[in-house]
Amino acid sequence: MIPKDLLYSKSHEWAKIEGGIAVVGITHFAQEQLGDITYVDLPQAGTVFEAGQEMGSIESVKAASELYCPVSGEVVEVNPELDAAPEKVNADPYGEGWMIKIKVADEPIDLMSPEEYAEIAQAEH
Amino acid sequence: MPYIPHTPDEVREMLDVIGAASIDELFAEIPAELRPKGFHVPHGLTEMEVRRRLERLAAKNRTDMSSFLGGGFYDHYVPSAADMLLARGEFYTAYTPYQPEASQGTLQAIFEYQTAVARLFEMECSNAGVYDGGTALYEAVMMAVRHTRRKKVVVSEAVSPIYRIVLATYTKNLRLDLVTVPHDRGGDDMAALTRAMDAETAAVVVQNPNFFGTIQDFTDLFAKARDTGAVSILSGYPVLQTVLKTPGAMGADIATAEGQSLGLPLSFGGPYLGIMTCRKALVRQMPGRIAGRTRDASGRTGYVLTLQAREQHIRRQKATSNICSNQALCALRALVNLCLTGEEGLTRQAALSIENAHYAAMRLCCIPEITLLNRESPYGNEFTAVFPTNAKKIVRALLDEGIVAGFPLGRYYPGLENALLVCCTEKHGRDEIDRLARKVEKAL
């Protein structure tokens, strides 16, 4: 469950960069570790982040953790569905469970390939 | 074996990391007279000796005086059944009811308390309560700071000075910009409060009735706060909430209160109760415990601690607050009192208290040299009288007559040395108020 066309962060976010816009979410591994997700706190459109900066938080029935922005840039869109249906992150983390879209300011530097991320996920399992 | 297992080397290492030269330097912030001189515990006493000693200490209290003290703490009547119900072992001896195995009865009591205060304030959500009115106001301000990610907090000077001191102490090292807007003859300066709000403002903080007893409608101010993206915070007085426009009706985002007036006995230092309510949109910023109602697998009603991901045991240092406790017994007492008194009883308590205060103001103002600080503004069960002389002098003279005439405002408001905050509740009789007026006239 680590798609080949995405880039990954150490903190288990994924980014799909196309035409200067990055779609961001959390990985299948991350949602599995969290369990049933009950709430996703996302930033507002217009907020500007540096890569690695805290951008929100995610809560499940057993845990809560911070979300870190995998790329630098300005938030242009926030998934409006997650407020009412946070379980979409569990059901479809790479599709309907996407979180924000960012207009990328700089080339991402610290992101990993699917193969590199697979090793990290394996190690943390 | 020493109880604290840190070796001198470990202590040294920790001090080096912090950058303090010694333990004394680490605690330098605490005034020397408040630091312990030593930990020499005296020898034990027999039960008889302990009783005698405590009785001697208790005898120092004067409980026979006629008191017109208010200032946030009010002597309302409490039905005797409240003591009886509170003393039940299931409630009285239960340890902090915060573990997953908390009893359904305790959780239901907290849930019912939340329901009652949310209705009283006409707000959508309530937590299980915090320590007192001051900490509730501080927590409300921090909710606003987190929600808006802004740093400026506009506070009316007419908000209880005790709450403002608590707020300043808690936020001292948080790099917040606390802006205090001066009161206007005991009223909140609406124009100045509005002017003080800008795009950096996290919250505007007011109190109703304010510390001078003045009643105001903050609806317009709160609408302006909404326009600038600031959170509006109102500290209220639970008993008077039955007859005043509620925080909810004024459009407040967060309403807090000192819950003492809901059946908690007056005592030096509490324990009291901090009431916290908010709009649903802010509930995830709410600190502390929240009990919720749900259904179990068989469809039966059950109660649980809810939204716990906000809290310390899950969220660690990112929790909404470091509060991980509440005043469960005090909250229960407030609930028991609310249930025993009922809507009608509470409304009559409020109306009688206000009538008595207006009678007292009328009696005092019949004395030629006494005026009200603000003659135009409406007031509830408390008002500010201005004497031709220092109010402390009057208070001292009346103490000899067995009367506590009120709270001299000069302590917190320089320039108001001649002003006295006088409070009445339904417990005052007309004769008692007449006597106050006679003795004040004599003391002038």
UniProtKB/TrEMBL annotation, chain A:
Keyword Zinc: no
Coiled coil (residue ranges): none
Domain Lipoyl-binding stretches: 21-103
Gene Ontology biological process terms, A to Z: glycine decarboxylation via glycine cleavage system; protein lipoylation
GO cellular component, one term: cytosol
PROSITE patterns to which the protein is assigned, alphabetical: BIOTINYL_LIPOYL (PS50968), LIPOYL (PS00189)
One protein family per Pfam: GCV_H
Alphabetized UniProt keyword annotations: Lipoyl
Keyword Chloroplast appears in the UniProt entry: no
Alphabetical list of NCBIfam families matching this protein: gcvH, PRK01202.1
Family indicated by similarity: Belongs to the GcvH family.
PANTHER family, per the entry: GLYCINE CLEAVAGE SYSTEM H PROTEIN, GLYCINE CLEAVAGE SYSTEM H PROTEIN-RELATED
Family matches, as HAMAP family: GcvH
Protein name: Glycine cleavage system h protein
Organism: hydrocarbon metagenome
